[in-house]
Design goal:
By secondary structure, this protein is mostly helical. 72% of the residues lie in helices and 0% in strands. The two termini are 29 Å apart.
Length: 183
């Protein structure tokens, strides 16, 4: 069903977007609220609307081989909410976003390599076995507390912490090695 809806969105059929919104609205709202809820309900609702608009406009960026559609949506959500947070924090200041996010000494090549590393890290995370992958996404992408993860998955806090620690070690090993991850 989801693949059909993705195809509908690619064809700019609003029914596809309605399905995606009905399916993911609560999770997107929850994540946005975790990141910018402090600034008020109106800001959260505006950001959620912008998330779905970004999905509508950027649907052609979704690549099934790089992860699930849910992951695509949550990455869009996370980055859109973080952008909002940054704008809200600096509301009174006028600044150049390019100067803010890209240091003067960073070349275009460095930016591209940084993006490639991010994709490699996402591939590593997607290769984690369950429940490690779920715990990692909940903790670091959806900002759940360790206690919340433990309760939700009927396990101990120590078990969740140990699994997250091992996941972080795998990512650190990749970062130290500077080589491509082979899964």
């Amino acid at each position: 069903m989801e693949k059909r809806m993705i195809k509908r969105i690619l064809k700019k059929d609003p029914k596809g977007l309605d399905y995606i919104m009905n399916t993911y609205m609560k999770k997107v709202y929850f994540l946005v609220d975790k990141i910018i809820g402090f600034y008020g309900k109106e800001e959260v609702e505006e950001c959620v609307s912008d998330v779905f608009l970004a999905i509508w406009e950027d649907i052609n960026q979704y690549d099934e081989s790089k992860g699930s559609f849910g992951s695509f949506i949550f990455m869009k959500t996370k980055y859109k909410a973080l952008d909002y947070k940054r704008k809200l924090e600096n509301k009174s200041e006028k600044y150049n976003i390019l100067e803010e996010t890209v240091p003067d000494n960073m070349s275009t090549e460095d930016i591209v390599l940084d993006k490639e590393n991010s994709l490699e890290i996402i591939n590593i995370i997607n290769s984690f076995k369950e429940p490690d992958k779920t715990y990692f996404y909940l903790r670091y992408f959806m900002y759940y507390k360790i206690e919340e993860i433990a309760i939700k998955h009927k396990t101990t806090r120590a078990s969740v912490e140990n699994r997250l620690y091992r996941c972080r070690l795998k990512i650190k090993e990749y970062m130290k090695g500077g080589c491509r991850y082979e899964g």
